[in-house]
Structure formats: C-alpha cells, structure tokens
Please model this.
Amino acid sequence: MKQILLTVVSQESQLLKTQVDQITAPTQMGEITVLPEHIGLFSKLEAGELKYLVDGKEESMVISDGFITVSPDSTVTIMVDTAKFARDISVQKAEEAVKAAKEAIKASPEDRRELLMAEASLKRALLEIRIAQKSKKTSI
Model:
C-alpha cells in the first residue's frame, strides 16, 4: 500500500518525519484529508488537531496556524509556529494555562496586543485539553 511522507516543522525544529497512511488537517475552509497520490495543494492551516494514521493507528498533534504543502509525489510538509503531540499534553498544565490566560484577559482589556495574545493562549490551552481528554478516552 502506498504511503505519504509527512514532515511537520515548527519555528524551532523538525518535529516529525514519518510515513503515514493518511492525514487530516484543519484548514481555513474546513478539514481536509490527504491520501497517497493526492493532487498538489497549498493551503493555510488553522490552529487545531492534525490527525494522521500510521499502520492503521490514529496519532494526533495540536498545531498552531501555519501552512500545508501537498506534492503529487505523496510528500506533505506542514509548517506551523508551534505543535505538540497529543501524548505529550498535560491536562493539568493546560488547565493552568487556561486560568492564566483568563486572568490576563481580565487584567488588560485596553491593551489590544496583550488581549489578542491572551485570547490565543486561551484558545490553544482549551484545544489541548479537548484533544488530551479525547486521546485518553480512546487509549483506555
């Protein structure tokens, strides 16, 4: 069976480079699923859950905004600011981040830049909690 070479790169490093069966990514127009021999594609990604199948087993990551490039030779490159494997998410740390972000939102209602950063942190922490809880349920 043909596979896709998936590479996930953040600002800091290459996070993943592996052969996968399929990829589902959150784009601005909704989720897309990429299978082997997909047509060429370039799209903007939204923060969300990147899912991919390895030997029939679903794996996932929380990703920030970024871009996806799909080459006709079954190579997919995902470029994001940040990403974290679902298995590495700490619900406790994410809940602490939610609390800190809510406090930051209350503390700086006039500072637009601070408010936007706090809202982005809140969104990311809530997404991490949702994905961590989902992955814990499926692994039981």
